[in-house]
């Protein structure tokens, strides 16, 4: 192969979607490419042109302008242009101009079509809509999963202890000592590199102690020979069936033909006790804060198992929020057992991510309390005591105190209904953007327990704040805040990552993506008088009210799903490595298709921010 062709293939191997092609197809693509140098200012495509060529920028950069001269896109090294007209056969819709000297690779349509026909992945990259690309970025199931239930979890995910191995010459007494030393209930018995059998604690009881066998004998006398094995990638349900059908309690698991661990019936029972429904039932039965804390200690493992089980990553925050809600309700019940019945109707409120049902694995408290205006004079003292029990209990269960003191133990956030309504009336006329920023969390609000009618009245006041422009100075400040976040995309759609420090080469998927997206959807929802807290529900209601087009709704919803899923998977991977979860994603650690989808999500956010600035100018 000549060096020029080799260089083309090497570049294509690193460039989506050519990286999806097998080597033979990539070689075919490379031979079909022609290279042309053009000077800065050259118009490569004009509006109305017919186009039968795929263009790929090897070096340089181009801009696309519509018929009114508006900039509609910039493309840099490794990016294609002319695709829409090539796929549809319709005239070119944008003028494509080089903004610096460039090397352009071109591929004729016949070669492009042949590659699409030969590779469905290559074809899909070009024909998927923006919305499909965004959503598909997080809908791929984990490699070893095959369903949406915990019992479809790959058995290898349950292995928690290293495999302990003895030889056929090991004595029974020595084997018992090894089991005790490693706190395991079974041993693998090898002869050289070959598996000969397993020895379990039941074997020691039934075949040694019960029969008075000499402990100096070899384990080959008591082991189970030729044990049943299953691949570690197979679902837990398959292991349960294998063990139940044979009346065994230990199942060796293999990878690539080598035993890597031992699944036990205890492991399976542990999985069952980490099922969300089981945890929720146990929470309701908890008789003390200590019991609750013990149950909540299982939540991080539940987080990992939910993702490994095949549940879509963006669905997991809803499960985690459900668990948090159940813990709160049980703590409220325990407080009432200690203090007696409440002196007046009340509702326990949550704000922010818990109100939106968008919590991740590490979250602090954001809560408040509202009670009826006709409560007796000493009611606040009772509610203050309840708030202290609940907030202290949440902290003990792994939900830390809010650093900003947005909790029901703070007097300002434990108010009669009239006090909360006064809050919203004042906030509706706040002209100070900094003050508005501090209170924006309260505009995601939901009742977890108590009289939901009290929370509904607060929600109506919230809606009036946003829908009435004459009393909505705060909404302009909220809009400008949502539009002020820096989206981490550079001039040619390259990611802008941290350049120094411990988070070097990463981007903050929460601060740069989820926060601005959540904020801008909140502004649009408040403007429409929509008071549901969930981001996805807000988008759906705005679509129903014709406040969003189908295209814009799909793009916003898809971006939110993608960012949520990437964040969940990032946290799971960090926990697997024993690290404290944060939001710093290294774009190099996700697939090419996910990187492309992430770029599109950031573009959706940037466009929505620009729309806010047009509607809410300074």
- What portion of residues belong to β-strands? 15-25%
Terminal CA distance: 61 Å
- Just give the CATH class of the largest domain: Alpha Beta
How would the global form be characterised? flat
Largest sheet: 4 strands, antiparallel
> Which segments are poorly predicted (pLDDT under 50) over 5 or more consecutive residues?
129-148
Specify the structural class: alpha+beta
- Helical fraction equals 40-55%
User: Strand order within the widest sheet?
Assistant: 1-8-3-6
Backbone CA Rg: 30 Å
Q: What's the CATH topology label of the largest domain?
A: Beta Polymerase, domain 2
Number of strands: 21
What is the mean pLDDT?
Answer: 84
Number of domains: 3
Q: Identify the CATH architecture of the largest domain.
A: 2-Layer Sandwich
Number of helices: 24
Sequence-ordered SSE layout with sheet pairings:
Elements: H1 3-13, H2 23-32, E1 34-38, E2 43-45, E3 53-59, E4 62-65, E5 71-75, E6 80-81, H3 83-88, E7 95-98, E8 102-108, H4 109-118, H5 120-127, H6 130-139, E9 165-167, H7 172-182, E10 186-191, E11 194-200, H8 201-209, E12 224-225, E13 230-231, H9 236-246, E14 250-255, E15 258-264, H10 265-273, H11 276-285, H12 289-296, H13 299-308, H14 316-339, E16 346-351, H15 352-356, E17 367-371, H16 379-396, E18 414-416, H17 417-427, H18 433-439, E19 445-450, H19 452-467, H20 473-484, E20 507-508, H21 510-527, H22 535-544, H23 550-576, E21 584-585, H24 592-615
Short description:
By secondary structure, the chain is of the alpha+beta class.
